[in-house]
Amino acid sequence: MADAQLSPRNIPDRLQGRGARLMKSWEALLLVVATAIFLGNSLASPYFLDPWNLSDATFNFTEKAMIAFAMALVIISGEIDLSVASIIALASTAMGYAVQLGFDTPALVAIGLGVGLLCGAANGLLITGLGLPSIVVTIGTMSLFRGLAFIVLGDQAFTGYPASFSWFGQGYVWWVFSFEFTLFVLLAVIYGVLLHKTNFGRTVYAIGNNQTAALFSGVRVGRVKFMLFLMTGLMAGLASICLTSRLGSTRPSIALGWELEIVTMVVLGGVSILGGSGTIPGVVLAALIMGMVTFGFGLLNVPGIVMSIFIGLLLISVIALPILWQRARRRFAQ
């Protein structure tokens, strides 16, 4: 029998370099999109490039991005928290009620963070303690927390916050850099290190990829998930402090609908809604994109309902496109 002719194969002596991987990453695409939107806004409105206008634009995303960083870890672990906007409302209501009793700024900050932590702990206990699905629990607590705010306030509003309290949402650290934007950058670094450079971050990825395997590997899955829901509660409390400080008042409808925008921000940043993958730099770029789009629409006097339609279409698109892309690749490979 004649010897079989083997076709030559080119076997690379090394994997793709880091630069090549970055160029093909989702974050690289987001960077291109962010640059295009920045250039488009600058051409569409002569006021966009004003430093103070750019500073004002950051208020469109900083508070939501604070929560999005923690939400990214929750979704990577295979869970979700839809109660974050209602936690903001309840924490803001608690701070407003405390103001009526004469509490000063330090106490208000402690109350805002404390209510956020308690709400996060409640979610975590129901999910990890009773084994309930996170989407069911957080839909329930979303209604519960918002309902409590409406019971306390009704159609009224809490005002009269101390002048020192307004610095959190209206103060500037240096020149056009607000306290909120500075906090956003600091939290991006903290969560980036936590997710990408620590054992805790690797544990979150492991749980999201295969919870059963992580459990049999000795990972305390329940404890890790409980900590993640504590983080989202804490970040919602922090966002409540900044938002209430910026608005100067509390209404039960505060931050209404933010959970949709926060989840959209996370998924647009490349975090898989099924868990197991995603990066903090991607979430940062997604926050910048959504902030610039919102501010650009505002400069062009686009109605707010158009922004709501855009957010809905964007959420559907960023979830559907990867699935359609994978199906197309499998079809062409056959």
UniProtKB/TrEMBL annotation:
<keyword id="KW-1133">Transmembrane helix</keyword>
<dbReference type="GO" id="GO:0022857">
    <property type="term" value="F:transmembrane transporter activity"/>
</dbReference>
<feature type="transmembrane region" description="Helical">
    <location>
        <begin position="282"/>
        <end position="299"/>
    </location>
</feature>
<feature type="transmembrane region" description="Helical">
    <location>
        <begin position="135"/>
        <end position="153"/>
    </location>
</feature>
<feature type="transmembrane region" description="Helical">
    <location>
        <begin position="254"/>
        <end position="275"/>
    </location>
</feature>
<comment type="subunit">
    <text>The complex is composed of two ATP-binding proteins (LsrA), two transmembrane proteins (LsrC and LsrD) and a solute-binding protein (LsrB).</text>
</comment>
<keyword id="KW-0813">Transport</keyword>
<feature type="transmembrane region" description="Helical">
    <location>
        <begin position="109"/>
        <end position="128"/>
    </location>
</feature>
<feature type="transmembrane region" description="Helical">
    <location>
        <begin position="28"/>
        <end position="49"/>
    </location>
</feature>
<feature type="transmembrane region" description="Helical">
    <location>
        <begin position="226"/>
        <end position="248"/>
    </location>
</feature>
<keyword id="KW-0812">Transmembrane</keyword>
<keyword id="KW-1003">Cell membrane</keyword>
<keyword id="KW-0997">Cell inner membrane</keyword>
<dbReference type="Pfam" id="PF02653">
    <property type="entry name" value="BPD_transp_2"/>
</dbReference>
<dbReference type="InterPro" id="IPR001851">
    <property type="entry name" value="ABC_transp_permease"/>
</dbReference>
<comment type="function">
    <text>Part of the ABC transporter complex LsrABCD involved in autoinducer 2 (AI-2) import. Probably responsible for the translocation of the substrate across the membrane.</text>
</comment>
<keyword id="KW-0472">Membrane</keyword>
<protein>
    <recommendedName>
        <fullName>Autoinducer 2 import system permease protein LsrD</fullName>
    </recommendedName>
</protein>
<feature type="transmembrane region" description="Helical">
    <location>
        <begin position="173"/>
        <end position="194"/>
    </location>
</feature>
<dbReference type="GO" id="GO:0005886">
    <property type="term" value="C:plasma membrane"/>
</dbReference>
<feature type="transmembrane region" description="Helical">
    <location>
        <begin position="305"/>
        <end position="325"/>
    </location>
</feature>
